[in-house]
Design brief:
- It holds the Pfam family dTDP_sugar_isom.
- This is dTDP-4-dehydrorhamnose 3,5-epimerase family protein.
- With 200 residues, this protein is mainly beta.
- The protein has a single domain, classed as Jelly Rolls, CATH 2.60.120.10.
- Helices cover 12% and strands 37% of the residues.
- A hairpin with a 2-residue loop joins strand 3 and strand 4.
Length: 200
């Protein structure tokens, strides 16, 4: 059962804080339940098309990633091991919060799960070795539809940790700033993202 949910300053992005059940063996956590999701969104949990996870060493930075829409992809993200500074960026052209970002610390202690609707950008910085980030997605990963904007975009001024030096993929290092991605027509449209909300 969820202990609480709050909406971040980016429309549609939710942070679920589940109850954690500890005992002498360890803990048991349900990162999200459909009843809590439906109560918060007014809609059933989306059809799950894929689950994935990444394992990252301390200093790894992944993002800012988003999926071309339509059809786009909604996802649930949590961190069952390690600790990550998770940052959500509104890259949806026409959104009332366009260019806004918000950060949340994800770890196995607070057990927070983020819901990211279609078109929202996502990145994280691993703060511990062997940090695991788990994803539940409404669509299968398609590399041809994956996009990125730069985590070093001075216009966004994201709080990317500098110590240790960030470890990024070559693709993420080449990612354009948000303004360039907008000018090049690479960003998802806000209205189209709302219309592309995944079916249950």
């Amino acid at each position: 059962m969820s202990a609480g949910v709050r909406e971040l300053s980016i429309p549609g992005v939710l942070a679920f804080t589940p109850r954690v059940f500890p005992d002498e063996r360890g803990v048991f956590v349900s990162p999200v339940q459909e009843s809590a999701f439906t109560a918060a969104t007014g809609a059933p949990l989306f059809h799950v098309a894929q689950t994935s996870y990444s394992v990252s060493r301390r200093g790894t930075v992944r993002g800012v990633h988003y999926t071309a829409a339509p059809p786009g992809m909604a996802k649930l993200v949590h961190c069952p091991q390690g600790r990550a500074l998770d940052i959500v960026v509104d890259v949806r052209a026409g959104s009332p919060a366009f260019g806004r970002w918000e950060s949340v610390v994800l770890d196995r202690v607070n057990a927070v799960t983020l819901y990211l609707p279609v078109g929202v950008g996502h990145m994280f910085a691993a703060e511990e070795d062997d940090t695991i980030m788990a994803y539940t997605m409404s669509a299968e990963y398609d590399p041809d539809r994956e996009r990125a904007v730069s985590v070093f975009d001075s216009g966004l001024a994201l709080p990317v940790p500098a110590d240790p030096a960030p470890i990024l993929s070559a693709r993420d290092r080449r990612a354009p700033p948000l303004a360039q991605a907008l000018a090049d027509g690479l960003l998802p449209d806000y209205a189209a993202c709302l219309a592309a909300a995944p079916a249950p």
